[in-house]
Amino acid sequence: MGAMRNSGICIAMTFLCRVGMLSRRLKFGRYPNTRCTNCAFGTIQASIALLVLFSLVHTPRAFAANPDLDTVLTGSRQRIEKLDYRVTGRLTRMEADGKRTSYKFVAKAHWFPDGLRLLCVISGPGSDETRLLLHMNASGHLTIKAELPGQKTASVLPFERWNDPLVGTDFSYEDMVESPFFWKHQELLAPEKYGARDCFVLKSTSGPQDRSYYDSVTSWVDRGILFPVHVVKTPRGSGQQKDFVYYGLRQVDGAWSASQVEAKVQGKPGSSILVIERGSGKAHLGIKDFDLSQSSDQAEKAK
C-alpha cells in the first residue's frame, strides 16, 4: 500500500509541476479577459491534479478487499490446498421412520500442483462398489469420473448426473468436494452465531464459468478455526435447498476436520450422515494413488 501511495504522489506532483509550467508559458497579452480566462484554466487544472492526488493516495483503502472476506477465503482455500488424507467410515441414509441403510465409505485426497484429487469407494452389503475420482483445480472447475455398479470401466460422469443422489443418500456427487470456496463471486454477509460458535457468513455464487447445480452456497465458518459448521446450498432453478451440518470438529495432524457431516434436503423426510471412523491427515499420497482402475487395491491399503 505504501508503494502505491508513493507512486500516486509522484504522479500527481509531476502533474502539478506541468500545470505550473503551462501557466508560466501562457501569453496573456494585454487583454484582461484573456488573463482571467487563462488564470481560471490554470486553477481548474491544479484542482484536477489535487483530485488525482487524493484519489491515488486513497485508492488502496477505498478499493481494498474486505479484510474479513480475505481472511475466510484465504483460510478456507489454504485448508483445502493442504489436504493429504486417507479415511474410512460409513455413509448412512436415515428414513423418517427410523430405517437405516449404511454403506462402507473409503476415501483419500491430496492437493497436487494442478488441484485436488479425491478418490472414494462406496460399497454396501450385497451391492457392487461405486468408485469416484473427482478433480478440482484452483478455480473450482470440477470433473468427475465414475465406475458405477454394473460398469466394468470408469468414465466421465455427465454433468446432468452430478446432482443425482449418491447411492440413494442426500449427498450428491458434486457434494463430495468444497468447490464453492474457489468460485470467483464471493460475498461476506453479516456475522452470525451458529450454536455457540461465532461465525463468518460467506455467500459463494456460481457464475457462467462454474459448472455446478448450485446457484449459491452460504457457509457459516467458525471464526477461530476457519472451518465450516453449517452450509446451505441453493440449487439453480426451483429445486429445494440442502442443509449440511458439521459435527465433532477436531484437529488431526494439525488440520481441522469434522467427524460427522449430516445432509438434509429441506422439505424431504429423513437425512443422511457421513461418519469418519478413522484415518490419517498426513498420508503422503502421490499421483499413482489416484488410479481409478486400481481403486480396489488402494481402498484395501486405507483400511
What does this 3D model show about the protein?
This protein is α+β, with helices and mostly antiparallel strands. It has four helices and 13 strands. The chain has two domains: 2-64; 69-301, Lipoprotein localisation LolA/LolB/LppX (outer membrane lipoprotein receptor (LolB), chain A). The protein is globular. The protein is 26% helix and 38% strand. The longest helix is centred in the first third of the chain and has 32 residues, at 32-63. Strand 2 and strand 3 (115-123) form a beta hairpin. A 13-stranded antiparallel beta sheet has the order 6-5-4-3-2-1-13-12-11-10-9-8-7, with helices on both faces. The two termini are 51 Å apart.
